[in-house]
Amino acid sequence: MRRSQAAGGAGLAVVLLVGGCTAHDPDMPGLTASPTAESTPTATPTPTSTASKIAGTVVDLSDAELGIVFDDVPDLSGDEADVHNWIATFEVEYWRTMTTNTVSPAMSVMASPEVQARMDRMAANNTASGLEVGGELSVTISRIAVSGDTAVGWVCDDFRGAAFADPSGEYTPEQMGADVPIAKDVSLVRGVGEGQWTVATLEDAGSC
Amino acid sequence: MLKALLVVALIGALGAGPLGAAPITTEPPWDHGGEDPGPGLGGDPPAVDAENEGGSVTVRVEVAGSTVEGQTFATTSVRKVAPRCWYGRGSSGYDYYEYWKVGGVAREADTLDDYAYQGLLNPNFEAYATETEGAWYEPACRYDVPLDELLAYVAAHPAVYVRPQDPVPVQPAQVDPAVLAQVAFEAMDLPTGEVRWNPRLPGSGATVVNMDTWVWVAGAPVSVAVTASVDSGQWARVDARLDELTVTAPGADPVSCPDSGTPWTAGATSTTCAVTFFRSSANQPVKTGYEVPTATMTITTRWAATWVSSAGGVPTGLPDQELTTTAEIPVAEIQAIVTRG
Question: Domains in chain A, start-ordered, CATH in brackets?
């Protein structure tokens, strides 16, 4: 439930002299299963650089395994590129949250408490509905504008490639009312990291 | 389940959809994270702040003022407010580690990997990699907190891991000065004083028609300072002063006075507040507790207020505040010359 996290807190890596590696199921990110005796993690070094490797460069965060694709990735630079990247990152974790019904831990890095509360609500409601969502989300990001430490952007979420199911059966996007892409306006504020932005607010913006 | 869904979707595309495979019941409600979760779904939770995350900030409110007679009064009270930034509960040590470790899900995204690369992850998070009980408590700020304030707060409040037996971090008191000012303003609970007038005929206490009736409020506050402060040293103070007093009553024209009036004393020759009744109160009802008809005189004091805070800056105006009190005043018609006192 954070807008942002502690800056510069990692410090030097801590080496845990324990055996084995944590088995990670890539199909179920965010799963909160208890670790077993075999799941004791191996220490991982944490870099201490304070410089960004990607600031100012647009990245395409399409992830076939997760089922998210970004359409019409714009050619941007500087702050606008960073804003695009963090909107895209939010969309990835939004979709991860929707497909796992577990709020992504990354939300604490890139979403305001208010937006995180909405993600909490979404996961809780869909869990209560017994709803599972899969398939593919297509995302278009545009209309990015930066002003100082604030920025805005526009997102079109296309769920027509998504799949829905509950214990009673499967449902098409049409049946779920997801056959019309949904637009939302996003506002962001600069975060604690270099090139990092945080989603401050989300507002419904009709269809797209 | 999701793999099964994909298979089903493919089958559907080939013309043998799930509708043919099994009867479909009513679609479950779907919350896609919009402003409106949709029919049948739970709405937004209460506003996000430290209070509903388990904490709030104690505000000490001190009221100090003086009355028209030069006497002072003071009160102290305690209130609770939501702060701008706070420690909020996050993931378990296990979930956090699994997500952020090298090779973890977060590291597959260039942006999140870059965030980790900058050394911004929770301090020493590897040490809590097997902790499924307890949680990280991480600094959080309202979305509208300015960046410099956010950075200062985060720098001073690194994430801490709290095991079940450990106390949660004390919620630091970072309160919007405007919020403190509002608390102070709302705490400006002023004494109303006692309405007095002259002439005041012996026995009935009545005034008379067609001559000035001096009106004043004994014990009326004329200035007040309300300070709301928190342990961190932040404070806001509302300074208010009586700006205007108005008197209305049936049978008299309303008057506006610049202060709470001038107490009548023997030999006094002028007042700042007088009302003239042109009609007796004979046509008024007899109120409960009274034996004769009375006119209800309403005294309204208007207070002008400004606030300043520990953050500095020039005094900021606040909406005027009005305070009303009433008095039942008999108004007599007499033919004789009245001598004051």
Answer: 68-207 (3.10.450.50)
